[in-house]
Amino acid sequence: MTRETEESGGPHGKTSRSDDAVLLKVQGLVRDFDSLRALDGADLEVHSDTITGLIGPNGAGKTTLFNVVTGFHLAQGGRVTLNGQDITNLPPHRIFRHGLCRTFQIPREHQSLSVLENLMLVPIGQQGEGLFNAWLRPGAVRRQELANRKKALEVLEFVDLSHVRDEYARNLSGGQKKLLELARTLMTDPTLVLLDEPGAGVNPTLMHRLTDNIRYLNRERGITFLVIEHDMDMIMSLCDPVVVMSEGRQLMTGSPEEVRRDPRVLEAYLGGQYATVEG
Ligand SMILES: Nc1ncnc2c1ncn2[C@@H]1O[C@H](COP(=O)(O)OP(=O)(O)OP(=O)(O)O)[C@@H](O)[C@H]1O
C-alpha cells in the first residue's frame, strides 16, 4: 500500500459531545479505484479522549478511509482536519508529525531486526539522521540514542514484550506482532492512534492484554483511538461511540447499544460475512 505518485500535486456514555472536542474531522471524502468508488462522501468525527469504533461490512471503505486520513492514499474530494488544522493529502510523514499514528491490518514489522531495534527505528526526530549532526554533534546524537533506547525498553515493558526484545521480529506470534505495532506507535507520544483490526489473529490472552493496554493508554495517557475491528465483542466492550460505514460512507454513529439495535446496521451486514451484529 503506497502513496501514489499523483501526490506531487467501553466505557459507555460518551456518545454526545460538543463540537469543540472534535479531534479528527473527516468531511465528504471521495476516493475512487478505477471505476470503483471506495469512499463516497465519507464523514466521520473522532472526539478527544474517546476510543471510537469503526465498523462495517467487508468492502465498506474502512481501511481506505484510514489510508486517506493518514496520507497513504490521496483523497479526490473532501477534507480532513486534525485539531482544526487541514491535513488533507499531506504526505504520511507530515501527518505523523501532527501526532497521528496508525497500525496496519497486516503488521509491518522489520522482520530481520530485533524487537528492540524495531522500536528504536521509529522516526522521532533522531539527531543522528543528518550528516551535520552525526559529525558535529556526536554528543547530542548519543544522548538521543540512549533516550530512545530507554523509552523503547519502557514501551516493551508496558506491552509485555521485554522477554522477546532481542528476538527477530519475524519470529513473533501474530498476537505479539500486533503488540509490537501498538508499541511502535507509542514511541512517538501520539495524540491519535488509528488501529486497523488489532484483534485479528490474536489469541484470547493477548487480546485481553491488548484491550487493557488500549484502555489504560486512553484513560491515563489521554491518547485517543479510532479502531477498525470485526470482532464485535471487542468493539462493543471497548468503544464508544461506534461509527458504522457502508458503501463508502457513514451509515450512522451511536453508542454500542444504539448501533446494535439499529435495523439499518443489520441490513448493511445482511448478505455479508455477518448476519447479525450481536456481540
Ligand atoms: N488499492 C486498491 N486498489 C483497488 N481497489 C481497492 C484498493 N483498496 C481498496 N480497494 C477496494 O475499495 C473497496 C473498499 O475497500 P476497503 O479495504 O477500504 O474496505 P474495508 O471496509 O476496510 O473492508 P474489510 O473489512 O474487508 O477490510 C473494496 O471494494 C476494495 O476492493
From TrEMBL:
Record-linked InterPro entries: AAA+_ATPase, ABC_AA/LPS_Transport, ABC_transporter-like_ATP-bd, ABC_transporter-like_CS, BCA_ABC_TP_C, P-loop_NTPase
GO CC entries: plasma membrane
Database matches in SMART domains: AAA
Annotated ABC transporter domain residues: 24-272
GO molecular function: ATP binding; ATP hydrolysis activity
Keywords on record: ATP-binding, Nucleotide-binding, Transport
UniProt KW Nucleus keyword: no
Protein's name in the database: ABC transporter domain-containing protein
